[in-house]
């Protein structure tokens, strides 16, 4: 063959191989990608990635919980902070990458489970497999000779294996060629795979319920003074101090609910540790709003009020000092405002108040602003003084006192700029627009007088509670799926998939080739039993021995097991 002929032959051979079309290659790519995505290995990797992706949400401040802390975190890290914000690390659970992992895990689990459900359904319809040719090679095996016919032994085995899926094979169904042979195949433990499927289906349901809850839920927190005052009504997100709505909620479709807080009681141990928080409230919901009917209820930690699909939780508490400011013209202003507990053990709290002079007291607005009163300082429910320094020795409201700085000037009430309710604006102080008049320690009923005759009196303090109104339409389903998931996992771990085979045949068919009478007139039957677990688990050998013992004892013979021979 010449070189040219050889080249033509190779070209012809190469041309004989069909090339796959672009559509075929695309279909193969999609098919292989789907197979890889719906494999159990991929599902486990995605589950691990989901847990890993949730870590930044627990370690970094989240904008949905506290936007102020996020802004402070970014401001303290001018280089790294903006990049972290671009990667949505401050909104982890709503980020595109967390959602992508979540959706891929959801699709992967569904793609894994559906074929397994079909396979399990087919397995339930399939008869147990035929007995192996040599039962003696199985991990668990025993044999015996009994005085009964093969038919009677097989019928007794089926009766003893009640609860097992059994099938009896005789004659042409067997390939051993041994005359008179009968085999019984039995299988049990289908609940193992069913429990496994229930676990994975419940996991999918749990993920779906959580996702639906995130779409249609809302949660608001509000501080209410526990003095039987007007309370709150959930008519708008503006009612709450902080409000989070689901992606499909805007706060306009909230369940109408009104709550009044009558009192609050805290039980403490001698060391100041809280033992129980209790608050007596009144509430209205549904038809009670139209009839103006108030119903009594009691809130405790982990014992919320459940009404109209909403839950009202008692989240925390603190103290709200009361101050009265009497201006030089004799008119007074009284205000009660919550202060922030800085010490969770002693409830030493800090806060601020702003008082605007009465209207018409000053000729123009500029002068009125220059005579506003600002108060900033510390509050102790049980006062303990180190000289002039105030601290708290116990969290209960037994001996309250305040250590305050009193300012006069523009407190920023009319600027329209957002301010913290727990502190005065340092910028206004630094600019000289607000000047400190005095620093004083006061107990209830005591007062201090400023240079212009303004009197600032400390009247005491009241309890406040932090209420959380939460709505999650999928919460019950989350509980249901969590319970079924744990039940399915328990079943899959406890139940063992196992198989038993019983082979019986006349003794003369395989034993005693001499002149024994039994060879000429067979009256006894050889019984072979073999067992195999689909998964190697401790305890199956003991169960097989007990089952074999009961079966052969019914036939009048003790099984020939290593334990019995010993």
Question: Would you mind describing this structure in some detail?
Answer:
This protein is α+β, with helices and mostly antiparallel strands and 566 residues long. Helices cover 34% and strands 30% of the residues. It has 16 helices and 23 strands. It has helices at residues 3-16, 22-37, 40-53, 55-59, 67-76, 80-86, 96-125, 150-160, 190-216, 287-291, 365-370, 426-430, 475-494, 517-520, 540-554, 562-565, and strands spanning 140-146, 165-170, 182-188, 218-225, 232-233, 242-245, 257-268, 274-285, 295-300, 305-307, 310-326, 332-336, 340-341, 349-355, 373-380, 383-386, 389-392, 401-409, 434-442, 447-449, 455-471, 498-506, 525-533. Strands 4, 6, 10, 11, 12, 20 and 21 form a seven-stranded antiparallel β-sheet that branches. Strands 1-23-22-3-2 form a five-stranded antiparallel β-sheet, with helices on one face. Strand 13 and strand 14 form a beta hairpin. Helix 5 (67-76) crosses helix 6 and helix 9 (190-216) runs antiparallel to helix 13. The longest helix is centred in the first third of the chain and has 30 residues, at 96-125. The protein is elongated, with a radius of gyration of 40 Å.
